[in-house]
Design a protein that fits this description.
single chain, 283 residues, alpha+beta, 2 domains, three-stranded antiparallel β-sheet, 51% helix, Tscrpt_reg_AraC-type_HTH, HTH_AraC-typ_CS, RmlC-like_jellyroll, transcription regulation
């Protein structure tokens, strides 16, 4: 497995892709990803399971979930639209952080939205219109792309709400954790008291930690730290704010602790993160 150091040109990117590989190494990256199958069959491999997609299927992936997508037949190249976006984009959408829930609770929600559903069909249509805007680049095309992107996020969220409603209503344990995840997504830069999260979940302490880990694959503290670091990556790459400003804006109270956690997360310091992108832009 390798870390795919994807540097987004913007907070939001629509890209049409073609692939013929039937085997390669898994990767992970910081961006959130939506994959919309356009032509021929595709295999999505995650750490513990495989999905076999067909044209019209839609898949959503967490930013830190190792995966790959492959053509099922090398003689039939798979074509898909890949939507990559930074979690920070949610700041500009009403209830945007809530719309990101399916990406961060992937162990609870299957990543697949089947082609036959009205949700997948609406996502497919919106993505085609967004791609067309990017190709034509008429006045205001970025704004139009953003509107189509919001439509896609809403359809993904509505799908999970509709499909999982029966399961969640039968499991107050899972619903409690989903409520906590949604709260953390919108308040990660603030001081979050884990004991208050336990109360919010209506679970006993031991069960809270167990269920949170099973749904997100991270502990609550790891989850909060990951959200903060994802936000820091974006601010380092796309703003002129100082590293100290970024550290405190993302919820870190110590610059030295921020530097330490960032290096553990990305393998380089925040300063190197910023310098590497600067060098790439100058090439």
């Amino acid at each position: 497995m390798f870390y795919d150091d994807i540097r987004l040109d913007d907070e939001l990117n629509f890209v049409k892709k073609v692939g013929t590989l039937t085997e390669h190494e898994m990767h992970l990256h910081d961006a959130l990803e939506i994959s919309i199958v356009l032509k021929n069959n595709v295999k999505y491999h995650l750490c513990d399971r495989d999905y076999h997609g067909k044209p019209g299927d839609v898949y959503v992936f967490r930013p830190f979930e190792p995966h790959y997508n492959l053509a099922e037949d090398s003689n039939k190249p798979v074509e898909w639209t890949m939507v990559l976006f930074a979690p920070s984009i949610a700041r500009s959408i009403p209830e945007g952080h809530k719309l990101l829930t399916p990406f961060y609770a992937a162990d609870k929600f299957s990543p697949l939205i089947p082609a036959h559903t009205t949700f997948a069909q609406a996502i497919q249509n919106a993505s085609k219109l967004a791609i067309a805007e990017g190709e034509q680049q008429l006045p205001g095309w970025r704004a139009k792309q953003f509107l189509y992107f919001i439509d896609i996020l809403v359809m993904i969220f509505r799908y999970y709400e509709a499909v999982q409603q029966d399961e969640l209503s039968n499991s107050k344990t899972d619903q409690g954790i989903i409520n906590v995840i949604q709260y953390m997504l919108s308040h990660f830069s603030e001081d979050i008291d884990i004991n208050e999260m336990i109360v919010m979940s209506n679970l006993r302490k031991t069960m809270f930690f167990k269920k949170f880990k099973s749904i997100t694959s991270l502990s609550p503290n790891e989850f909060i730290s990951r959200l903060r670091l994802q936000s820091a990556v974006y601010l380092l790459d796309y703003t002129a704010k100082s590293i100290t400003e970024i550290a405190f804006e993302c919820g870190f109270h110590s610059l030295s602790y921020f530097n330490k956690q960032f290096k553990l997360y990305r393998g380089i310091s925040p300063r190197d993160q910023r310098n590497h992108l600067k060098i790439r832009r100058e090439l």
